[in-house]
Amino acid sequence: MKKIKMVVFDMDGTVFPMQSSTCSAETIKALEACKEAGVITSPCSGRSIFMIPEEIKKAINTKYVIYCNGAYIANPVTEEIADSNPVDKNKIIELFRKAQMDGVYHKLSTFHQFIDDNTSGKTFGTIPAIFVDDIYETLENLNEPLYKAEYFFYEDLSLREKIMDIIKDEKEFFFSSALPVNIEINNPKATKGQAIKRLAELYGFSLDEVMAIGDGDNDMTMLEAAGFFVAMGNGSDILKRKADAVTDTVDNEGFAKAIYKYVLNK
């Protein structure tokens, strides 16, 4: 394995547990050790720019972060966009209409906020979000780039399979899931793997100098792109089977252990 010059990493289930935004002191320590060693470290997440915790922003060593599954790459401080692949809002309207059913909600991610039609579950806390009654009218009037759209089905997980049966042959989108309760919809050019390639180009690194770490099926394109891929111990079975290495779980400092073993050689 070549010397690792860049580490890109998923966030939910990798640097902190699902449904959390708090990572351990050991994770921060590992990121800071990478910074001291001159290793570039960048999140590669389904999260938007406004969802990256301040402690992560301070600890990482990068000019750019990959957001919304690769839909855009931006400077986390200046918010300058280095690469962008939004999804067509009119095509999303058509897609949403194809799989309308009770119990299905929708979420939109723009650069600065969420838009959500699950008006009964306003649980985002400090995350910028607006709640709407009519997602279609909202999309029609949207006057900013749409980077990611999502189906959500909180009450009935069987809806995922029903929706996928309806939309699976749509070639103008890339579908993935970070959670059992959602389906994420991106531009086909917006994948974590393609974003890693672009980020490596921005830094002048070859892909075999890049290590990626993740836990979910939506991290598969990272596995395919990076020169070395580490799956979290709590990761999906298929990801662990295909990974170059498997580390410990997120609850047992798997991220930090992978950094020390494969990047810093400690």
Counted up, domains total: 2
- Could you say what the CATH topology of the largest domain is called? Rossmann fold
Order of H and E elements: EHEHEEEHEEEHEHEEHEHEHEH
- In CATH, the homologous superfamily of the largest domain goes by the name HAD superfamily/HAD-like
List keywords for this structure.
266 residues; alpha/beta; Rossmann fold; Hypothetical Protein, Haloacid Dehalogenase-like Hydrolase, Chain: A, domain 2; 2 domains; six-stranded mixed β-sheet; five-stranded parallel β-sheet; 9 helices; 14 strands; 29% helix
Describe the structure.
The chain is of the alpha/beta class. It folds into 2 domains: 6-81 and 191-263, Rossmann fold, CATH 3.40.50; 89-186, Hypothetical Protein, Haloacid Dehalogenase-like Hydrolase, Chain: A, domain 2 (2-Layer Sandwich). Helix content is 29%, strand content 20%. The chain is built from 9 helices and 14 strands. It has helices at residues 25-37, 54-59, 89-98, 135-140, 159-167, 192-203, 220-225, 237-242, 254-263; strands at 6-9, 40-43, 65-67, 72-74, 81-84, 105-109, 114-116, 129-131, 148-152, 174-176, 182-186, 210-214, 228-231, 245-246. A 6-stranded mixed β-sheet has the order 8-7-6-9-11-10, with no helix packed on it. Strands 2-1-12-13-14 form a 5-stranded parallel β-sheet. Helix 8 links the parallel strand 13 (228-231) and strand 14. The protein is globular, with a radius of gyration of 18 Å. The model has no long low-confidence stretch (mean pLDDT 93).
